[in-house]
Amino acid sequence: MDGDSLLNCDLSALQGATIIRPSGVLTIRTYPQLRDAMLKCAADQPRAVIVDLDELEIAHDYLNSVFITVWLRISPWSTVSLVVVPGPAHAARFAHGPAHRFLTVRPSVLTALEQLDEQPPRQRTELWLPSSARSVRAAQRFVTDTCRNWAIDTLATHAVAVASELVANAAQHTDSPARLRLELRARRLTVAVADDDPQLVHLPGPAGNPAEPHGGLHLVAHLAQASGCSRRQSGGKVVWAVLRVPPNL
């Protein structure tokens, strides 16, 4: 394997954030390695993902798009902050251009931690579930009660349906306990189920096939504004769906 195909990502945790320190050379060949490392870390839902570029060589300016790509992938369903610490060698690359418009850039990791923006007002809750068909009923009660407590009762029917399918899918296809997460922010409700099985789930497009019954993951895709599946750095995956809160609520 050529030297420029190698890129290492050292991971650490500090104050609830995940720090990624890539080293080596960012090229078109190593681009997927850095992209996937950031996506996996974000899927674990830390306070923030902070990428320290001090030991990374960037072969071409256009490769900075990896950070925008990751931001676009995680922003529809997650509140995790993505912060780039370019260091002296790359400060000019991030001072202007499209990356500056989308990303939070800080001069050091400590400054990034000190200046983490407060997230938009949000509500979040989680429920751990065993790998059992009975978990579906527990998830339904949990979602119903949460929607009532958050005053989004009219969304409860769709939220319960989505959670039921995601939890049932995890129970049917994995031997892993699952973690159901509900998060409400900016009039969007995220329903996410994480498990320890690395096998990714394919969710059909929102249109689906009209000849097929609206059940299973087709129902999730039909009801959700956006949905997907992401690998987690800690292992396993998270399957998620975003529901839009009706404007009358």
Question: How do the strands and helices of this protein lay out in sequence?
Answer:
Elements lengths: L6 E8 L2 E10 L4 H13 L4 E5 L3 E3 L6 H10 L6 E5 L1 H9 L2 H5 L1 E2 L3 H6 L7 E8 L5 H15 L6 H18 L4 E8 L2 E8 L20 H8 L2 E6 L5 E8 L5
Parallel strand pairs: 2-3, 2-4, 3-5, 5-6
Antiparallel strand pairs: 1-2, 7-8, 8-9, 9-11, 10-11
Account of the 3D structure:
With 249 residues, the chain is an alpha/beta fold. The chain folds into 2 domains: 3-114, STAS domain (Transcription Regulator spoIIAA, 2-Layer Sandwich); 122-244, Histidine kinase-like ATPase, C-terminal domain (Heat Shock Protein 90). 34% of the residues lie in helices and 29% in strands. The chain is built from 8 helices and 11 strands. The protein has helices at residues 31-43, 65-74, 87-95, 98-102, 109-114, 135-149, 156-173, 216-223, and strands at residues 7-14, 17-26, 48-52, 56-58, 81-85, 104-105, 122-129, 178-185, 188-195, 226-231, 237-244. The strands form 2 sheets. Strands 1, 2, 3, 4, 5 and 6 form a 6-stranded mixed beta sheet that branches. Strand 10 (226-231) and strand 11 (237-244) form a beta hairpin. The longest helix is centred in the middle third of the chain and has 18 residues, at 156-173. The chain starts with 6 loop residues before the first strand and ends in a 5-residue tail after the last strand. The mean pLDDT is 88.
